[in-house]
Structures are given as C-alpha cells and as structure tokens.
Amino acid sequence: KAKRRGRNTCQWYTEDLNRKVSERVSLRNALQQAIEQEQFELYFQPQMHGLSGRVIGVEALIRWHHPERGFIPPGDFIGLAEDTGQIIPVSDWVLATACRVAKQLNALGHGPITMAVNVSPMHFQRPGFLKAIEQVLEESGLAPHLLELELTEGVLMDSAEQAIQALQGLRQLGVHVALDDFGTGFSSLSYLKRLPINRIKIDRSFVRDVITDRHDAAIIDGVVAMAGKMGLEVLVEGVETAEQFGYLAQRRCDYFQGYYFARPMPLSDLRAFLASPPAIAAPEALMPSS
Ligand code: C2E
Ligand code: MG
Ligand code: MG
Ligand code: MG
C-alpha cells in the first residue's frame, strides 16, 4: 500500500514538474509577444522629502497587461526574463520610456523630479551598459543627475571589481545610484564603503514593525547613522502608515516612499498628483506622544 502511494506521489510530482516547465515555456513565449507588441506600461510611485512634503522623484515600476491573462506583476516575470535573457529588451524599453517621461515631467515645471529605474543584474553586467545609459540620456535629453539607477546588493557583489568600475563610470556621467532593498542582502559594511553610490533604500521589511520591534528600530538607527557619516542619503521604502512616517522622520530618515504617500500609478495620474500633491502632515504631528 505504501509502495503504491509512493508511486502515486512520484507521478504527482512528475506531473507537477511538467506543468511548471510548460508554464515557463508558455510564459516565455508570451513574454516574447509582450516585447514585440509592447504590452508593458510603466507605473510611477512618488518619493517624498519628509520635512517639506515635496515630491523629489518617482520610481518607475513595470506593469504587464497580458491580453488574456490580465495583469501580471513584475515579481512573476522579471526573474524568468533574467533567465532567458529577455530582460535585455525589456530593460531597454523601461529605460528609454522612463527617461522620456522624466524629461517631460521636468519640462512641466514640477521639477526637479528624479526618475528612479530598477536595473537588473544581467543588464548592469552587460559590456555595453554604460554606453547604453549614455545613449538613452542623449536621446531623451534628460539631465544625467535626474536619472537614478536602483541596484541591489546582489548585483554589486557578484563581480565586485567590475561593479565598482561600472559605478565609477556612472558617477562620471553624473547619473545617480541607489542601493535598493538595503539590508536584505549580505554585503559587508567595509564593502559598502568602497561603493560610489548616492543613496540607500532601506527595505520595507524593516519598516513594517518598526514601531513595536526594537530590533528593526535599532537597524534603522544604525543605517541612518552610518549613511550620514558616509555622505549617503537614506530613503525608506514601504511606509504605509502615518505612525511609521512620524516615527521614521523622528529617527532622521529624510526620504520616503510607500502607500501612505501614494501607490504606484499610471502617468496620467502622476501628472495630476504632481500638479496638486496632497498635503502630508508634518511628521512631528504624527508621533504618538513621546
Ligand atoms: P522594488 O524595486 O523594491 O520596488 C518596490 C516594490 O514595493 C514595488 O512592487 C511597489 O509597488 C511596492 N511598494 C511600494 N510601496 C509599498 C508599500 O507601502 N507597501 C508594500 N507592501 N509595497 C509597496 P512592484 O511594482 O510589484 O515591483 C516588485 C519588484 O519588481 C521591484 O521591487 C523590482 O525589484 C522589480 N521591478 C519592478 N519594475 C522593474 C523594472 O522595470 N525592471 C526591473 N529589472 N525590475 C523591476
Ligand atoms: Mg526599486
Ligand atoms: Mg526595493
Ligand atoms: Mg526589489
């Protein structure tokens, strides 16, 4: 009996595996069509300066509208696109589109608004990467300091020396670099010291319970102190409540991004948002009596 169950289990796994493989194949084909037919759209999430309440930038976040399957979030296809190399044409599209939008937004007098673009490891490590950035800036006419590339710790650790060279190249171009999801990777602080970057984005996993979890609070305090000494800006991701904002502002975080301020939105909504940004309460007013 046990044996039969064992065999069934095995068969079940095989079917499961087959299903996963064919799902990946069909996703890859669908992605190919998406690239050819431009089924992508960029959403933009505002980034705020806490004290002034000003929008200082936006992060471009890709959205895939599949004609039959509907909306597919980036978490469901970016990884596969990395594996198949399809991330390259996707990234090229994202960069070109984001820079064009940034140029428009800054021309409207809302500026200066920085455009933050997520860069995938494969894109960053490609030999022609710097040239491609230079070219997209030239084509769009966007000032280099208004482009901020978001890299993760993993990307930079994979091939450290090469990464540092590429970062130096970006700095020479005048392009800004932010370290995304900071705290979730394993980069050592001594390594961080050598990276020519402008900003650290503290991962939202440290923000969720920051008010009640003293470990999270200690980590935030430590990163803010360290970043300050290293001349790096700190932006906190995933701020969802007024209390979190008030608390983090009091801990000397300067820049914020999260649902509390605004969700990622299509360009038309972003234009309206920038034209009349909602007033945000001064952070002191938000603190529970302390
Ligand atoms: P990320 O770069 O860390 O982007 C932040 C993610 O957190 C976004 O998810 C955003 O919608 C979400 N988020 C923002 N504020 C909050 C909040 O207050 N609470 C919560 N729970 N979530 C919040 P999204 O758009 O699904 O993107 C997921 C990830 O996919 C991104 O993480 C990024 O790593 C990747 N990604 C998105 N667009 C691109 C792209 O154009 N190129 C590449 N290579 N990767 C991208
Ligand atoms: Mg990001
Ligand atoms: Mg992030
Ligand atoms: Mg991420």
From TrEMBL:
<feature type="domain" description="EAL">
    <location>
        <begin position="24"/>
        <end position="278"/>
    </location>
</feature>
<protein>
    <submittedName>
        <fullName>EAL domain-containing protein</fullName>
    </submittedName>
</protein>
